[in-house]
Prior knowledge:
The complex is a heterodimer of chains A (549) and B (196).
Chain A: H1 19-29, H2 33-63, H3 74-108, H4 117-139, H5 154-185, H6 198-230, H7 244-249, H8 257-260, H9 263-277, H10 284-297, H11 321-329, H12 331-347, H13 358-381, H14 392-414, H15 416-419, H16 426-450, H17 466-499, H18 534-538
Chain B: H1 18-50, H2 63-88, H3 92-120, H4 128-159, H5 169-194
Amino acid sequence: MTMTDSPPATDTAPSVTSPAVAGLYDALTTTDHKRIGRMWLNTGVLLLIGTVVLGVVIGFERLDADSIDIFGGENAFFQMWALYRVSLALLVVVPLFIGLATVVVPMQVGSTNIAFPRAALAAFWGFLLGAGIMIASVFAAGGWGALDRATADERDAVALTIVGMAFVVISLLLASVCLATTVVSMRVKGMTLLRTPLFAWSMLVATSVWLLTLPVLLANLLVAYVDLHNGPGTFGGGLNGSAEIWIQISWIVEQPQVYAFVIPVLGILGSVAPVVAGVKAGRHGVSMALVGLFGLVSFGAWSQSFFQFDPAASVAYDEKFVFVAFGIAALVPILGFFGGIADTLLRGRDNVTGLPPAHLLGALGGGLMVLAGVVAGVVRVIEPLELGGTITVSGVMNLVLFGAVASAVGGVWFWSSKIGGNELSPMMGRMVALDFTAGALLLGGAQVVNGFFDTFDHPLAVPTEDIADALNIVSLLGALLLGLGALGLLASVARAMRDGESASDDPWSGQTLEWSTVGGSFTEAPALVTSETPLLDASDEPSDEGEES
Amino acid sequence: MTATATGLPAAEITRPRTVLVGTMFACAAAFMAFVGVVLYYVSERASARANGEEWFPDGVVELGPAGFVFATLILSIVTVQWAVQAINNDDRKNTFVALALTGLFGAAVFNQLWFIINDTGFALNASTGQFLFFVVNGTFAAFLIAATAFLTLTFLRALVGQFGPRKADNVAAAAFCWNTVVAMWAIAWYVIYVTK
């Protein structure tokens, strides 16, 4: 067998007596995409809890940054604030989607495994290593450059933060290559690109955008690292590292790039809604085009403060026409997509009885938060409002990224029978999904409004208006709700793993190929695909009348 | 064709070009990383010129040696595509010769690059311009080494008979990777050595 051939997707362990050793050996050597996906998901959930706790503490200190000092100084507070933002995007949202996709996408396209399974496994361990280095170095007085440019000891820790972050980015890129290749080249016969299920398609769009934008972040990190060690100090390397390193990389958590991390939200919603409604979604091709368009306008590697090609014009990058145009254009595809979802749900409203399922609440709630974030993003780019540099920027980030977390929760509940095989509590799922949605709305919404009162987007900014203090309290309440949601998610998953009942292979009468697997594996060759909903076509029940394919 | 549990006929097994597709994605990412570094160069140079500052001392960065690098790389495109053509025709002898020649060109480019960097006498911390000169050329050198390593691995695997006309994707993937590196130099050559 050559290095690039895919080994059989089996879990093998040496003949050892200790289950812990066997488990570790299996985790280090498995080539089973479901196992690798679960490792991504578990790590993402744990990092979510850590990130949300950090967010709560930051929110608490922000209530009165002058008198409350939890982190031990202004610089430490700034670094933790930056860590929270980077973590939410790169250590939580992207890993959750990669985990979900690593489990589901190969099944959706009718493949028995992910492309390059060993590379996918290496990506996970590289991510874990990088995340560990990055977090540890920030707590060891590192981060993205000192605010005061004073402490010489910080230099090595700052360098370590950059190295850890680079490890994380390279690992995410490797995982993206595996997923994108799976969708492009491992689709079953008959599944043309236009018949690809919406979640798999959204992952192809998302990973493509990540592959084209995150390398630019690597370039930022490379320049900062070399400058830090022996450069002229132009890029944050001066005097042992300055906060200019953060200025160079902060574009990843601002629009339009932050939208790139939430593209799979549309895929999850597009997969869940037709199944819940029990009808075939209308105009699959249009939905695919809208997801692609959203991916196009979320390409944000160009929108950074160091890329100024016309200095004489003296226009900040976020005041240029193209930035405004991207901000407004992002609303078009997402509104169109929601129009399609509304149509699907309305056509199948008679099929929805009782409480809406957890996966619909998560997918819809998360999607709506992303929509709210994009709307806030449109408001943010309207120049007369002068919201650039205010906390509205953070509000947009929190709305879309926690919306993505809510959506991922919906995805985990929807595909739980494929992920772990055990049934997750439906009631707990509803509570967690609603909790994340409400938390995102309170945290992000209050920050968006707070920007109108000239509260700057900096942890040490002092509010200028009394109402800004009140809005900070609302944000803190939102963060606390998110903390409860994260704990609820962990408790649900732990309970399902310990004593959950085995879920049936197709509990929702699914429409795409993953629902024809038994125990998460194809027991026979996947069905010949003749449309984007092969299982719906094969079922005896007639689909909704008047639908369009 | 057998029936499946869904009642639909089973799909035929496809022959995916997984390695080639994966390499294309990876190369696109590598290319964007290089573009990111070059954008720093372009942006800072624009700022320096707008402020009336000197970017490079006159006559230090020469077009000639960089042009030789480009010419060598263009030759290597021919040889690497020759390797792809040969493996598709099951012509093992020509595959080996073409891959070896491409690797040789890669080594020559590395040597020329080393000369260019030493010839300028630049220091990493002397100025922003000199710093970015090092970073852009160094990044290119790193990708050149990676592409050469990929090519060498492909050569060794071809040597032990792992590739043939029915399994030529790995050679095509190595060629794509190599051509990406050539495209990187085309950008660096124009931005640094032509427009300086």
